[in-house]
């Protein structure tokens, strides 16, 4: 812990960066039902924001948590830190919960963005996918940006790298334009969903494999751009698949 004198001796931007980290840790502690030092946090905020009138009061956990959260983003803004998913103090663990797993998987063909890879891991875990399969040119969750956006799900989900050719003969379908609408698609009881590159989509080779297997599913889009991020598209399709199976 910093003394007030030592904290004030820091350069202003560094002071704000340190304050953001301290507040993030305090927020996480509060979410877990742990006690935090209100007096210490007040000192940190007054020094970082140079606002001596700041006074934190722990009148209720909900109010106190929102107050800490709001101040965290104020000091981040002053420090010039852009907000990302991994800056958010999310504690989504459910004590004693057992993960439900469905016999469904997703194959990432040449996804280039590590952020998208991590986001897909997080979504796949949320909708009970058993594993994430990666093409050789897709970043693994060991990549720092992928790990950060996966928010811990890379340690929960089974995953491995697999050559595209190994999908031949397996029950697969592609998420791509020009296929059966997601509202009419007959989702299988088990199988692999193929996601293609952010720039070029699913390759012709894997589209052919999908057509010979379970086919192609498409998400109706109505805007001018007629396109959504691959992670968003996966979330829509993953929810539809999981919901269908859980109703059967």
How is this structure best described in words?
The structure is a single chain. Helices cover about 40% and strands about 10% of the residues. With about 250 residues, the protein is α/β, with parallel strands linked by helices. The protein folds into 2 domains: about 80 residues, no CATH class; about 140 residues, 3-Layer(aba) Sandwich (Alpha/beta knot). It has a 6-stranded parallel β-sheet with strand order 3-2-1-5-4-6. The model has no long low-confidence stretch (mean pLDDT about 90).
Distance between the termini: 54 Å
Tell me the overall shape: elongated
CATH class category of the largest domain: Alpha Beta
Major sheet strand order: 3-2-1-5-4-6
Fraction of helical residues: 40-55%
Classify the beta-strand content into a percent band. Answer: 5-15%
Number of domains: 2
Q: List the total number of helices.
A: 8
**Count of distinct strands:** 6
C-alpha-based Rg, rounded: 23 Å
Low-confidence segments, given as residue ranges, are: none
């Amino acid at each position: 812990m910093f003394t007030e004198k030592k904290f004030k001796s820091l350069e202003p931007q560094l002071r704000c960066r340190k304050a953001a980290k301290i507040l993030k840790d305090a927020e996480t502690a509060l979410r877990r039902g742990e006690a935090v030092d209100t007096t210490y946090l007040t000192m940190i905020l007054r020094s970082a924001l140079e606002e001596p009138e700041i006074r934190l009061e722990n009148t209720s956990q909900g109010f106190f948590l929102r107050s800490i959260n709001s101040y965290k983003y104020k000091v981040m803004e002053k420090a010039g830190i852009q907000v990302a998913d991994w800056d958010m103090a999310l504690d989504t663990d459910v004590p004693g919960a057992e993960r439900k797993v469905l016999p469904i998987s997703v194959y990432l063909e040449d996804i280039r963005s590590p952020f998208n890879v991590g986001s897909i891991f997080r979504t796949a875990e949320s909708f009970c996918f058993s594993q994430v399969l990666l093409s050789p040119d897709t970043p693994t969750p060991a990549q720092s940006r992928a790990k950060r956006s996966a928010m811990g799900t890379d340690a929960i989900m089974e995953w491995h790298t697999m050559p595209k050719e190994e999908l031949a003969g397996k029950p697969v379908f592609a998420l791509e334009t020009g296929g059966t609408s997601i509202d009419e698609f007959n989702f299988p009881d088990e199988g692999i969903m193929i996601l293609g590159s952010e720039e070029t989509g699913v390759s012709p080779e894997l589209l052919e494999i999908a057509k010979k297997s379970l086919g192609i599913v498409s998400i109706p889009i109505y805007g001018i751009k007629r396109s959504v991020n691959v992670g968003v598209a996966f979330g829509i399709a993953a929810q539809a698949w999981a919901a269908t199976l859980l109703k059967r």
